[in-house]
């Protein structure tokens, strides 16, 4: 891609990147504080896990549906709905009085994210040229990570100085800006890349569904999605309480999350682009190994030093997995069915998040708070084995 084409490519995607950044900034402010707020209201580890489970259940239900709806109604309307729901969740956190309230609000956030990611992923790969889907998803993921990094640092700082509750005022503003950005700019966004091959196939063609469900890379991408989000779900749901139990103060918990997101940003910006050149498998296997190493380090940590190393490695690893897995789907799924495919992918992500929150919370309560991270390491290793065996024989469409 020459410099002129690259500039046009980035200009088309800029409104989307800004929206992703603002959306994740607000959520990043809230995410480290939600488990601590729940704990301050009397939640046990199991109940903290249920907070994450409530999010994941509705996310699983709605993600596949929202992808299909975005194929029919357009990407913009689903993304706008998600921003409005997120703003509403921010308001409700300010008046939550017990753990059940937190669970219900997290359910609303699950609906918001279920409406957000499938159309965002589909729109990103559609705007990008076929040979740059990995790079486009990398930049999209970097926008998401940048918002979360700043948000995590702000959230920890605000909570340390003003208390948990006041943090959610700062969750509300970025969500409102995201909704405004969608309303003003997205009316000018158009899908600019539909290949000649895609144009020859009608939307009614049965070949679309056959290719989708018989594609080994597509199915494997969903296995990877459930695996890496199990690690991510353990981090987002349980890590704040786990770190606090090791004596880490709330400000430094925010810093640890920021380290995670910095690692994810750096990795996202390069992993997708490199995978466009060297292949998806060459990036996914090392990244999943990194998830296993980071999880093991978290399990044996006794203080902030080893936790910091763990969070950086985990951020780099997860930052590589996400854009490359989405690009792998883009390689093997017809353009007109991409919303459905991304919805299924996000449903798989939701399954990983839900399982991590539920199982991890119970294991931490009944056995040891370190054991969920041991399980994360084992699942990551199993995914490496599956990926090494299955994708080696897969037919991946060339994007050269």
Describe this structure in words.
The protein is an all-alpha fold and about 400 residues long. The chain has a single domain, classed as Growth Hormone, Chain: A (Up-down Bundle), CATH 1.20.1250. It is built from 15 helices and no strands. Helix 3 runs antiparallel to helix 10, helix 5 packs antiparallel against helix 6 and helix 11 packs parallel to helix 13. The longest helix has 30 residues.
Q: What is the structure about, briefly put?
A:
With 400 residues, this protein is an all-alpha fold.
Which structural traits does this protein have?
single chain, 400 residues, mainly alpha, Growth Hormone, Chain: A, 15 helices, disordered C terminus
Integer average pLDDT: 81
The Rg value, from CA coordinates, equals 20 Å
Number of helices: 15
Structural class: mainly alpha
Task: Determine the strand fraction and express it as a percent band.
Answer: under 5%
């Amino acid at each position: 891609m020459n410099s002129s084409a690259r500039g046009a490519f980035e200009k088309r995607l800029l409104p989307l990147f800004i929206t992703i950044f603002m959306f994740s900034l607000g959520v990043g402010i809230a995410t480290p504080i939600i488990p601590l707020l729940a704990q301050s209201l009397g939640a046990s580890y199991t109940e903290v896990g249920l907070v994450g489970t409530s999010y994941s259940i509705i996310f699983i239900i709605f993600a596949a549906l929202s992808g299909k709806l975005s194929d029919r109604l357009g990407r913009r309307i689903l993304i706008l709905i998600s921003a409005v729901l997120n703003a509403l969740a921010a308001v409700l956190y300010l008046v939550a009085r017990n753990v059940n309230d937190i669970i219900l609000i997290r359910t609303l956030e699950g609906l918001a994210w279920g409406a957000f990611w499938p159309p965002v992923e589909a729109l990103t790969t559609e705007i990008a040229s076929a040979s740059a889907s990995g790079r486009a998803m990398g930049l999209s993921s970097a926008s998401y990570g940048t918002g979360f990094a700043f948000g995590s640092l702000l959230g920890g700082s605000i909570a340390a100085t003003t208390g948990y509750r006041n943090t959610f005022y700062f969750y509300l503003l970025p969500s409102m800006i995201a909704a405004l950005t969608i309303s003003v700019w997205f009316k000018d966004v158009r899908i600019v890349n539909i290949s000649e091959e895609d144009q020859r196939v009608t939307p009614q063609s049965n070949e679309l569904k056959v290719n989708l469900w018989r594609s080994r890379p597509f199915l494997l991408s969903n296995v990877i999605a459930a695996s890496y989000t199990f690690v991510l779900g353990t981090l987002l749901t349980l890590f704040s309480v786990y770190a606090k139990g090791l004596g880490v103060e709330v400000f430094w918990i925010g810093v640890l999350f920021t380290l995670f997101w910095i690692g994810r940003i750096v990795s996202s910006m390069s992993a997708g682009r490199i995978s466009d050149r060297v292949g998806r498998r060459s990036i996914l296997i090392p990244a999943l190994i990194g998830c296993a190493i980071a999880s093991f380090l978290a399990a044996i940590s006794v203080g902030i030093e080893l936790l910091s190393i763990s969070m950086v490695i985990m951020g780099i690893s997860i930052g590589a997995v996400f854009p490359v897995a989405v690009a792998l789907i883009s390689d093997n799924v017809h353009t007109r069915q991409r919303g459905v495919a991304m919805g299924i992918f996000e449903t798989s992500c939701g399954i990983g998040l839900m399982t991590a929150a539920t199982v991890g919370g119970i294991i931490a309560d009944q056995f040891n708070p370190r054991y969920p991270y041991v399980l994360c390491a084992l699942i990551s290793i199993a995914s490496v084995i599956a990926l090494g065996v299955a994708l080696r024989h897969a037919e991946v469409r060339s994007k050269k």
